[in-house]
TrEMBL record:
UniProt similarity note: Belongs to the ABC transporter superfamily.
Nucleotide-binding recorded as keyword: yes
Region span, Disordered: 262-291
The keyword Lipid metabolism appears for this protein: no
Entry superkingdom: Bacteria
GO molecular function ontology, one term from the record: ATP binding
Name of the molecule in the record: ABC transporter ATP-binding protein
Pfam families attached to this UniProt entry: ABC_tran (PF00005)
């Protein structure tokens, strides 16, 4: 008998929304995600790219277990997600975290960032106060905010605030983090710093990442494999280097052509600058487990 698959296995996911129109007397359902199957291995980063409206966020929410598929299934380390709101679902929540684009929208403006990271931790674990403080402080230090715990959200830059949100997600020791346009609102140099930080942390913490972005140049730096979404379908999925160097699908080629740098040489120079000397090759460690 073969071992049960670890990590995420999504099979034939569909998410339909009613379009409000009626065709032949039946409610016409629009498929935001239309039959997507994929896997994410432990420690693996899967990038998801595609234009706005292609279904990336809907797919990410189903993979994170915060939206129920219309049909199809997700297993998370060999478990199905429990129904939203049930005790089992709450237990599962700590293992999968989501980081969105706008950190200011998900923090409490009246609480210090130390208090918010600590609160996430103590909601899930019963700890002595000093231990909760120590673990919070250690996590803040890991995201480069070791001296800023006392600050309120408005006293941080956008990049620092996103680091605080990442600390709050990672303090629970999740297995999977879904990053949905998590760096898209930040300046390019800040994006690169946060990507580099994620590259370090995912090794330390053996994290699986689903990294969703409309920006291919960001995705290629962090992803072992990349999937291309278009109109709810996964058009192609493959090893990051292969996909970027040798796209099979016309649509992928067009997406790639829209990356601003116009020659491979210019792109490399820009990468070197933005990623502090770590080119794409250096930023992409060896692929872990192929599915
Ligand atoms: N809750 C919803 N109700 C109805 N339509 C939705 C809902 N969420 C997303 N959609 C539609 O599904 C499609 C895919 O959306 P989304 O997953 O947000 O794409 P992306 O993240 O790639 O921009 C879009 O056409 C969007 O309008
Ligand atoms: Mg989206």
């Amino acid at each position: 008998m073969s071992e049960a698959p670890k990590g995420i296995v999504a099979t034939n996911l569909v998410r339909a929304y009613s379009s409000g129109r009626r065709l032949c007397g039946k409610a016409d359902a629009f498929r935001a995600v239309d039959g997507v199957s994929l896997t994410i291995a432990p420690g693996e980063t899967l990038g998801i790219v595609g234009e706005s409206g292609s279904g990336k966020s809907t797919l990410g929410r189903m993979i994170a277990g915060i939206e129920t598929p219309t049909s199809g299934a997700v297993t998370f380390w060999d478990e199905h997600y429990a129904g939203v709101g049930t005790p089992q679902w709450r237990r599962q929540r700590r293992h999968v975290q989501v980081v969105f684009q706008n950190p200011a929208a998900v923090v409490d403006p009246r609480w210090s960032i130390h208090a918010q990271v600590r609160e996430a931790l103590t909601t899930h674990e019963q700890l002595a106060p000093s231990e909760a403080d120590d673990r919070t402080q250690a996590m803040l230090a890991m995201v480069g905010l070791g001296t800023m715990g006392k600050r309120l959200p408005h006293q941080l830059s956008g990049g620092q605030l996103q680091r605080a949100v990442i600390a709050r997600a990672l303090v629970l020791n999740p297995r999977l983090v879904v990053c949905d346009e998590a760096v898209s609102a930040l300046d390019v140099s800040v994006q690169a710093q946060i990507i580099n930080m994620l590259l370090e942390l995912r090794e330390k913490l053996n994290l699986s990442l689903m990294f969703i972005s409309h920006d291919l140049s960001v995705v290629r730096h962090i992803s072992h494999r990349v999937g291309v979404m278009h109109a709810g379908k996964l058009l192609e999925i493959g090893d990051s280097t292969t996909l970027f160097d040798n796209p099979r699908h016309d649509y992928t080629r067009r997406l790639l052509a829209a990356i601003p740098a116009d020659s491979p040489r210019q792109r490399r120079q820009r990468d070197m600058k933005a990623f502090g000397g770590r080119g794409a090759a250096a930023a992409q460690p060896e692929h872990p487990v192929q599915s």
